[in-house]
Amino acid sequence: MIKKLCLGLVCVMLIAGCETTGDVVDVLPPPSPPASSDNELKSIQRPEAPPATLGPEDKLRITVYEHDDLSQEVSLASDGGFAFPLIGKVQASGMTVEQLEQHLKQELGKDYIVDPQVSVTMLESRNRHVFVLGAVGTPGVYPLKHNASVLELLTQAGGVREDASWYAWYVPAGEQAEARGTKIDLERLLSGEIRPPIRVQNGDTIHVPQGAFVYVTGEVQKPGRYPLKRNTTVDRAIILAGGFTKFASKKRIRVRRIVNGEQKEYRARSSDELQNEDVIIVPESIL
């Protein structure tokens, strides 16, 4: 009887020892620091942008100071032109806003107004653009509408994908090379908590990085891949996977992690924090 009991204990120990491949380290270390913001911003790849010139369907507000009868909003026709009082047909296609201002000032000053002061404001443009990139429905170059916000442009690009990170980068034109940008909490943005709206300008970039994931395997209800949110713990990941099965060994959970290019396994506590590509292993109870 004693021999059978000893043999049973030996079998249990052998099974426990065979549950893992490689060494199991006692303590799961804190997650590795994320990639630096500088490197992340510099790695954003933007497509080639169209030239920032006027074209068909652009909408403009033209103000001639002290001449309210001449000030008006105009839309460029399919040929890029529009009609303006005193001058007649103005062919604006291919001009910049500044060039159009000078052209109108010159034409009005010929025979009608002494030293006219003219201002042209872009209300909506097919040729002014922003970049919406990364984990969105349809990344690409989008025409810039007057006073457009980050939220409006994300919606126009098909929304944020399920595999997106928890944040987006807003990078003003010309500042990517300097690694300057604003990190935006997408949950707060999409819920309307961020006020006032973040307005974008010509040439700006909105980039949604792809999110991080963890894998939950073994004795859980729904093994699989799950998004890694901020401060996700072992316990939280198991809840996402539907919780334990009745056969789970809750006290012998392990986490498999790549450290310095080498795969290691750690004994995990429910409060341990996870990092990208961690694999949670919930073994079957041996009794």
UniProtKB/TrEMBL annotation:
<dbReference type="GO" id="GO:0015159">
    <property type="term" value="F:polysaccharide transmembrane transporter activity"/>
</dbReference>
<dbReference type="Pfam" id="PF10531">
    <property type="entry name" value="SLBB"/>
</dbReference>
<dbReference type="InterPro" id="IPR019554">
    <property type="entry name" value="Soluble_ligand-bd"/>
</dbReference>
<feature type="domain" description="Soluble ligand binding">
    <location>
        <begin position="130"/>
        <end position="165"/>
    </location>
</feature>
<protein>
    <recommendedName>
        <fullName>Soluble ligand binding domain-containing protein</fullName>
    </recommendedName>
</protein>
<dbReference type="Pfam" id="PF02563">
    <property type="entry name" value="Poly_export"/>
</dbReference>
<feature type="domain" description="Polysaccharide export protein N-terminal">
    <location>
        <begin position="48"/>
        <end position="122"/>
    </location>
</feature>
<dbReference type="InterPro" id="IPR003715">
    <property type="entry name" value="Poly_export_N"/>
</dbReference>
<dbReference type="InterPro" id="IPR049712">
    <property type="entry name" value="Poly_export"/>
</dbReference>
<feature type="region of interest" description="Disordered">
    <location>
        <begin position="29"/>
        <end position="55"/>
    </location>
</feature>
<keyword id="KW-0732">Signal</keyword>
<feature type="domain" description="Soluble ligand binding">
    <location>
        <begin position="214"/>
        <end position="263"/>
    </location>
</feature>
